[in-house]
Specification:
Blueprint: H1 3-12, H2 24-30, H3 36-50, H4 65-71, H5 73-76, H6 89-96, H7 113-116, H8 128-138, H9 157-165, H10 174-182, H11 192-201
Amino acid sequence: MKQPELNQMLTRAGIPQSRIPQNLAEQMEKYGVVSLEDSKRFLANCLNETGGFKVFKENLNYTTAGRLIAVFPSAFKAKYNPNLYLNNSAKLANLVYDDRLFKKGLGNLYDGDGAKYIGRGAIQITGRHNYTNLSKRTGIDFVNRPELLETDEYKFISALDFWKTHGLSFKTSLLKTRQVIAGNYGNNPFGFAEVSAWYKKLK
């Protein structure tokens, strides 16, 4: 798919031109996302993950203790006072994403890693370990410059890398791609209704 065609399809889906990186079609082709069907599945998932290409960085600015307890029970049900982490994304990330405290396999073993390697990209990656692997596969230093994943040039790289490394172009349906991204292999994985709605808009 060429960039003008991509722009037209996304515009029909309600996405302003200003939100569409002008290297997106080229990047998709580089990662093997070339057919119309595969492109629609990829874009529908990215549109869902980013709220329509608006948000490319995880927001951890929680405003209520109850919500923090619900989302991060291992940290706030008994161990830590949630009121001390409200409206402070960096402080919260440095706590809940610290592998020295919670074994999540993120590779965050140094002070400040949680906030530095917060979720970024069109399909977000989180943690030093994932940033390191992405850097190795792409040859781009996201470890020392994680903010690059928020820029037009690179904001879709993590999503395309995920799509390729998980073989999502070879899945036979929108449901099967969503199951992998959501990490839920039931018939209604998290976000599937929203992804389906975006898919229908991509005519």
